[in-house]
Amino acid sequence: MAHAVSGTGRAGRLGSLLWRRPGLSLAGLVLPPVAWMGLIYIAALAVLFIAAFWSVDDFTGEIVRNWTFANFQEVATSPIYQKIALRTVAMAALVTLTDAILAFPMAYFMARIAGPRLRLALITAVVLPLWSSYLARVYAWRLILAHDGVLNWALRGLGLPGAEIGYTNTAMWIVFSYIWLPFMIMPVYAALERIPANYFEASQDLGGRGMRTFLKVVLPLSMPGLVAGSIFTFSLTLGDYITPVLVGGPGSDFIGNVVYANVGVANNIPFAAAYATVPLVLMAVYLWLARRVGAFDVM
Amino acid sequence: MKMTAQGAGIGIDDEATGAAEGVLLSIRGLSKGFKGMQAVKDLDLDIRRGEFFTMLGPSGSGKTTTLRLIAGFERPDAGTITLDGQDLSRRAPFERDVNTVFQDYALFPHMSVAENIAYGLKAKKLPKDEVATRVAEALRMVQLGAQGERRPDQLSGGQRQRVGLARAIVNRPRLLLLDEPLGALDLKLRQDMQMELKQIQESLGITFLYVTHDQEEALSMSDRVAVFNDGRIEQVAAPADLYERPETEFVAGFVGTSSILDRGERRWVLRPEKLHLSHSSGTFTGEGWHSESGVLAESVYAGIFTRHIIRLDRGETVVAVEQNRRRYIANARRGAQVWVGWHDGEAYALKR
Asked: Is domain A77-292 annotated with CATH 3.90.320.10?
């Protein structure tokens, strides 16, 4: 004991050195993540961005390292690429909205109504699918929504007409909304759980009916959770290219599919890089807007 | 608004006060239980218009539950609550003409001070200019005139509680409920706020229903006090009556300190400041005096007064407080023989 207190051991000497030099311990704490961010994350992004200004020799297929805006020009002017980008963004927005509407009552029930045991069971149920493979879940939906799938089998069993939604944008919307739902429920749940019970009582006490209490107190205070959840659902949908292939139809290509095709089939990495900056810029704008409305102030 | 001191009777007297004019809030047969625990047991209570009424009791005595039942945050198992002759029992909190000041303020953190205060007025859909006028007036009343644009987290605890008060009184409720509003403040601020609350109550003429576990606060602010114990009311009385003539042993023990002695017909409630001490047996011989011998077990010097603990020869221990005006018994040695005396006109005996 006296050994540790007098600081004669190697660990003790290090400890007292760090105590005397607070800057040193701060550097030790921050340097590894900063190095990681700088080398692996920022650098990769920078290379992507730089590559977007290169081009591919039509004849040899070699990458030509001369500066050109041609890739961006094509992204901006080609009706097909515009349409695909618009489809991707619209789907991301629709999925985000759907998940927000589905998640809110669920999160509210978990945070404010369910008892401790039911709450734990529900949290487990919400998070459990994330342990299973993404691909397995998307294939499961393929089996459900296909022409001869579980859905139509059940509908016909009930004597109802079948729903022909397999391999369409509707199928994609359903699958995306299902897959990213936990990422919306959990932050909204966390935000709702943090609201003290007496805010609800204070609002009612001051004459606030259910709607006013919801719009003026509950919704603003759960906004950080909704924004955090929407950042997940929006960006995850924006970057996806597997679900469009597996459950989407012929007209369901996403930005990610075009990037994939250009990297693999067409071997046009500069164009892939240029098109990949579109979701990046969109996400930056989205985060900037979220900040503008003060979403991060209350986080 | 003046209170008479002789209201010390039984808690509730239906014939005398229940139907009488001047009763604002009337509670009859109110009961509320939570899982395995009966918090409020068949409670009757009348609160008069314009009075400062305090519900005093230890934690878990049912006073806060009673307040929450009146506010509508809890639903009663049985009983009625009538405000100005209207039954509140079936109304939601937002349909009741009462407002609450919460112990931990419950200010909305995403709204400015002024927005917090305007919340109730906007819920009532009052015109904009009237909302603005009344908010400004309320801010002035709680001495926060210049703080309207600030956020609750930029204020001190005392300022937040003023906002909580302003947010409630701006609605001009018929009854204001205060749930240990000064509980989180330090002593000096508490004492200032006590004075201020009392002044605001008198200038507005709003009936205050105040919950506290602090007997000094209850005695110094209230027109009448109800002492709660185990879901029931032990006694309702004006502060002086409560202290000087407690009706039950619980009240005698909870409001102030007292030593209780069983002496034949009588059961004495002896307050420390009403006991006299002497070194000689001959001091307490006059008309109406009672005295007993004992041994001084402990003397604790506390500046203004000295607290003596005396073990009586008949077995009980009593506490006597003596102002340090003279240095008479302060020199007394532990173990010294003393006589404890009290007078019929000063001490009080419980009903048997």
From this structure: no
